[in-house]
């Protein structure tokens, strides 16, 4: 158990640094593009959007490929490949000479990354059965905290130092992750091969597809409200400091997610992940709608904190249920496909939320996300029950 805990926290550090590396560019990218010689606002917006969006697109396409190779050649090798590649590419950013080069580097980053998906599958495979949801919940806090701290760190360092300093420091952290993985993680390939041929399960492909859809919906809802939150804060808060309050509102769900995800995961190991998924989907759906009813920023922060609690029980439990539902030899590819659904949900949510808000009232976005979550909860309940009954032979 001590060996597993050490491996879990080494992977946690790696996921944290890579998530930080992927997200730290958000507030400084337009400034960096301008620093490289582009002064036209349209050009800055174009290259910034392209450079930011091309990374998750590459991750969506290549995650299943890296997951398949991880099952074949070992997850440790995939973790080393991803951390070394991201460290080099992040360092390369500080030496970029043009916006086109930045876009190229970000595209390559999306292609070579795959660290989080490899870590999730690795931890899911080696975790004791009674601690799967807890371990995945703990690992998810690394991604959340890295995504939260990354933009804050990027903006803070860029304010007091050169922008390239941000890239240099994050590259150093990811390199540290590479070193710790290389020296302190030991993958028992023999046990892994034995598990692949002994841990046979009756797979329900429809339930697996429903879980893929659930992952997509979770990310669609989470990122669907992101483009409009600052506008909504401006509507309900008339006392200035909009940037500060908008940042607090956005970050509040991540903060509660960080605190509750491991606790909910531990509880899910006792009662089963399916119950947590159903209740959390309903709870998050209601909370997303409650956002539209808030009349001041303090109420909005409270609701966002509640959403973070609900979200803390979703992705880790989806991953835990996938492990229970999938034959071990197919686990890597299935987790890779689930990561693809996650990245597609990020993209479609951010893009779709903005489109809906542009043609309807902002409150309609919250209502639409609520509707999607509740429908997903009901669909999940139906097919999850069928899966249980089919396993019982009924």
From TrEMBL:
| GO CC entries | plasma membrane
Keywords linked to the UniProt accession: Cell membrane, Membrane, Transmembrane, Transmembrane helix, Transport
Bilayer topology reads: Multi-pass membrane protein
Q: Where does the record place a coiled coil?
A: none
- PROSITE patterns to which the protein is assigned, alphabetical: MFS
**InterPro entries given in the database record:** MFS, MFS_dom, MFS_trans_sf, Tet-R_TetA/multi-R_MdtG-like
- Boundaries of every Major facilitator superfamily (MFS) profile domain copy: 7-388
> Where is the major localization of this protein?
membrane
Residue ranges spanning the membrane: these are: 7-33, 45-69, 78-97, 103-125, 132-154, 166-185, 206-233, 239-260, 272-291, 297-322, 343-360, 366-383
GO MF term list: transmembrane transporter activity
Q: Name one Pfam family in it.
A: MFS_1
Intracellular or extracellular location(s)? Cell membrane
Q: What PANTHER family does the record tag this protein with?
A: MULTIDRUG RESISTANCE PROTEIN MDTG
According to UniProt, the name of this protein is MFS transporter
Q: Which organism is it from?
A: Campylobacter estrildidarum
């Amino acid at each position: 158990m001590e060996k597993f805990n050490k491996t879990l926290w080494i992977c946690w550090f790696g996921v944290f640094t890579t998530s930080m590396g992927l997200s730290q560019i958000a507030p400084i990218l337009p400034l960096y593009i301008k620093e490289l010689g582009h002064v036209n606002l349209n050009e800055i917006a174009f290259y910034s959007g392209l450079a930011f969006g091309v990374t998750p697109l590459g991750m969506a396409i290549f995650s299943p490929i890296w997951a398949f190779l991880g099952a074949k050649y070992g997850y440790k090798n995939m973790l080393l490949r991803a951390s070394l590649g991201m460290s080099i590419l992040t360092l390369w950013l500080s030496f970029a000479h043009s916006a086109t080069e930045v876009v190229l580097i970000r595209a390559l980053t999306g292609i070579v990354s795959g660290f989080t998906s490899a870590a999730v599958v690795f931890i899911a495979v080696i975790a004791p059965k009674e601690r799967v949801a807890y371990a995945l919940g703990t690992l998810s806090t690394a991604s959340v905290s890295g995504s939260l701290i990354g933009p804050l760190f990027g903006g803070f360092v860029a304010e007091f130092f050169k922008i390239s300093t941000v890239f240099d420091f994050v590259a150093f952290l990811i390199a540290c992750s590479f070193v710790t993985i290389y020296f302190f993680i030991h993958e028992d390939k023999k046990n892994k091969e034995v598990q692949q041929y002994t841990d046979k399960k009756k797979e329900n492909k429809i339930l697996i597809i429903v879980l893929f859809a659930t992952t997509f919906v979770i990310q669609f809802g989470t990122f669907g409200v992101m483009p409009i939150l600052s506008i909504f804060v401006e509507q309900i808060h008339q006392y200035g400091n909009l940037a500060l309050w908008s940042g607090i509102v956005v970050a509040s769900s991540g903060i509660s997610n960080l605190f509750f995800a491991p606790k909910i995961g531990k509880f899910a190991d006792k009662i089963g992940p399916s119950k947590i998924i159903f209740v959390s989907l309903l709870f998050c759906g209601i909370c997303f709608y409650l956002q539209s009813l808030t009349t001041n920023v303090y109420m909005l922060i409270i609701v966002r904190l509640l959403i973070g609690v609900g979200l803390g029980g979703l992705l880790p439990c989806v991953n835990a249920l996938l492990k229970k539902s999938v034959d071990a030899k197919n686990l890597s590819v299935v987790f890779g496909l689930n990561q693809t659904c996650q990245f597609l949900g990020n993209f479609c949510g951010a893009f779709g939320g903005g489109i809906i808000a542009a043609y309807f009232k902002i409150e309609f976005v919250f209502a639409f996300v609520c509707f999607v979550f509740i429908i997903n909860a009901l669909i999940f309940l139906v097919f999850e029950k069928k899966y249980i009954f089919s396993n019982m032979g009924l």
